Records
---
Amino acid sequence: MRARWIVVIALFAVGVIIAAALGVGAFLAAPASTEAGQNEPSSAADSGAPTEEDDDFGTVEVYTVNSDGTLDPEASGLTAEIWDTFIRVATLDVVSKVMTQYRVGDAPDSDTLAYVYQDDDPSRWILAANLATSENHNDLVATLVHEYAHILTLGQDEVTGDYSSCDTIVLDEGCADADSAILGFEEQFWAPYGDSAPALNNADADVAYDFYLAHEDDFVSDYAATNAVEDIAESFMTWVVEDDPTGTSVVAQKFAFFDAYPTLVAVRERIRAEFADDLGLSV
C-alpha cells in the first residue's frame, strides 16, 4: 500500500488540531502562492533526472538516493527544498540508510501532497512528492512527519515480511511484530470498534468519512479514520506538531500511547526542536 497524504486544510498553530484528509497517507492541499523567483519547480527538461509515469503525479522525475543521503542527479528549487525538509524530519542518518529513491511530480489536479512506500527490498523506502501542493511550508513539514511515521511504524523492526504464520495483524507491509507500536495501537484503539471499523487495508475515502462522522471525537482528522495505519501516522504527526491536549479524550489517550515508546518520544522532541521556529512550537 502506498502511504499518501492528501493535505486538506492544515493550520499549524499551537493548540489547533489539524484537519487532514487521505496517506499509507493522502491530504487536500490548499492553494499556495509563490513569490516571483522563489521555489519555482524545476522541470524534467532542466533537472537531468530520468522520468517515469506515476498513477498519482503523471510524469515524475526519479532521483536516486546515494548512500550519503544526497541525490543523483542533484536537485534544485522546490524539489531540493522538499528533500532537505525530509532530511530534517527523518535525519540524514535514517535517510541514508533506508531511502533508495525520491520521485517528484508537478500535478496541480492531484490532491496528494506526498506518499511513501516500500521498495522491492522491504527494508528500504521511496518518497514521492507533488511540487504543485508543496509550497506551503507548514503543510509540507506536517506531511513529511506523517510519512516518516509510516516508516517508523511499518519498518522491518516493527513488521515482518513473512505472512505465512502471522498470529497478530496482517498489513500490506507484512505481519506486525508482537511488541510493535502498530499492533498495540490497533488493539487499544481500533479493535474495540469490532466489525464496524474500516478494514486495515481500507482506502475508500467514503467509508473513512462515514466512520469519522460516527466517531468524530476519536480522531485528529477525518483521514485518520481511514484505517489503523493512517490513524497512527495522523495521530503521531499531530502529537509532534501540536502541544498535548488535556483531559481523557480518545485523542489524548492516543497521544499518551506514544509517550510509552521512548524511541518515538525522542523523535518527537528532536523534530519539535528542529522546527520550533518554523511552526511556532513550544519546546
---
Amino acid sequence: MIQAAIVEDDFATQGLLWDYLRRYETENHEAFEIALFRDGAEIIRNYQPRFDIILLDVQMETMDGFTTAKHIRAVDENVILIFVTNMGQYAIKGYEVDALSYLLKPVPYFAFSREINRSLQRLQKKKTEHFTLYNENGFTRLDIIKILYVERDRHRVLVHTETHTYSTVGTIKEIEAKLGSGHFFRCNSGYIVNMVHVTEVKDNFVMVGKYRLSISRPKKKAFMAALTDYFGGSRK
C-alpha cells in the first residue's frame, strides 16, 4: 500500500488529483491510501514521516507549498514531493527541498501518470536503502547505511547507529531477513554486523565503529569469509 497525501486548497484540483490516483490504481494495479489536506499548516501539524508521496500545491492561503515542504523536510528526508502549480517559474525553487518534479495546472492525466511512474521507481529504490523500525510509540525510518549493528536483547531487538540506539519488537532473525544479505552478516548469534563500518578484526573481536563485539567460534570462519569477500571485491 502506497501512502499518498494531496495538499491542495482548491476543491476542484483536489478532486481531480484524487480521481487521477484512483485511475492510476486501476490501470497499473497499484494500491494507494490517500490523505487529503486543505493547507500546508494542516499537514505539518503533528507531522509524522508516514507518507511515500506528497502532491503539494504551491500557492495556498495560510502556508505556501515551499514553506510547507521545508517543515516536512526538517523531519522527513525521504518522502517524495511533487509540486502542483500554475506558475512554471516556481519549479526551480523545488530543488531547495529536493522535490522530484512539478506538475503544471491544469494537470493533464498523461503528465500526472508519468510523474507517478517516476515516483514509484524512486520509491522502490529508496525502499532498498531504508529500513523501517516499529515500536509501541510509532515507527522510525533509518538509512540502512547508517546502521552499525543489530543486537538481540531478550524479547526485543536493538538497532545501533553512531548517534542512537533504537528498540523494536520482533526477533533478530526477522530483522536479518528484512535487511537482506548485502553487507550485513552475523558475527555471533546475538549480533548482526554492518560490514561497511568494520574497522578492525583482532583475535575473536570485531570493531564496528566505536563498538567492540565478540565473534563466536562457530560463526568466525563464515564471518571472516564474508568480510574478506566484501572488502576484496564485492563492495558496492
---
Amino acid sequence: MGRVTERRRTIRIRDGAVSARPDTLVAEEPLEIRLNGKPLAITMRTPGDDFALAAGFLVSEGVLASAADVQSIVYCAGAKDDGQNTYNVVDVRLAPGVPVPDITLERNVYTTSSCGLCGKASLDAVRTTARFPIADSPPVLVEPELLSALPDRLRAAQQVFDRTGGLHAAALFSESGELLDVREDVGRHNAVDKLVGRALREDALPLSRAILLVSGRASFELAQKAVMAGIPVLAAVSAPSSLAVDLAAEAGLTLVGFLRGPSMNVYAGDERIALHTGV
C-alpha cells in the first residue's frame, strides 16, 4: 500500500542535450468507497490514508459526525482475476443505529481528482446537512501576519511534492499557527478528506478552532468540506470560485484567497481577520 510514487523512464532535453533517465512520478489509482457493502463513489487518489479519505468523504456527505458512527473500515477484495487484493476498494460499515443514506444509481458517482462531487452539492444541501454550525463555534481571531506565514510552512512539509512536483496539499493549523496535520494527494479534495477523516477517527470533530490551508484554488467542494467539518477559516494560495464565496458567506466561513506573502483577499467572514485599517 506504499504506492505513493512510481518510477518511469523519461527523455530529458536540457539546453539541447538529450538523455534518458528514470523520473519519480506521483501515483494515481482509483479508490472505490463502499458504504455497508454498497458502492457509493469512486475517486482518483494517491494511495495512502485510504481509511481516512473514506471517512472524511462521508463527513462531507453528512453521513458521519464522530468516531462512534463507524463500526469498521476495511479493504475489500480487489478486481484481479487471481483474487489478489489491489487495496483499491474500501468498505465503511456504520455503527448500529446510524442512519444509512439512500444510495441510488443517480448518487453513485465517479469523482475525478480535480473536481470533487461536481454538480451534486448545493447551498441548500450543505445548509441542511451541516452537523457543526460555524456560527456556534468559539470565536477565532487571526492576524494577517500569521496567515502570511502559513504557505511557507505548508510547502516545507510537502515531502512527496519535493520528489514529484505533482501533488496538492492541505494542512490544518491552530489559531496560533501551529501545524497540526498535513496531507498530500493528486486531488486537492482528497487531501482535505484525509485531514478530516483522520480528525474524525481521533474523535476531534468539529475542528472549530482550526485553519484549513489548501495549496491550490478554493472550489465549492473544498468550502463544503470545511463547513461540514466545522472549520471556521479556509485559506487558499489561489482563487476561490464564485459558488465557494457564496457558500462561505451563507455558512459563516471565513474564506481567504490569493494568500501569497503579505498579500491576500478576504472574500467572506472578515470578522475573524484582525484588520487594523478600519475597513
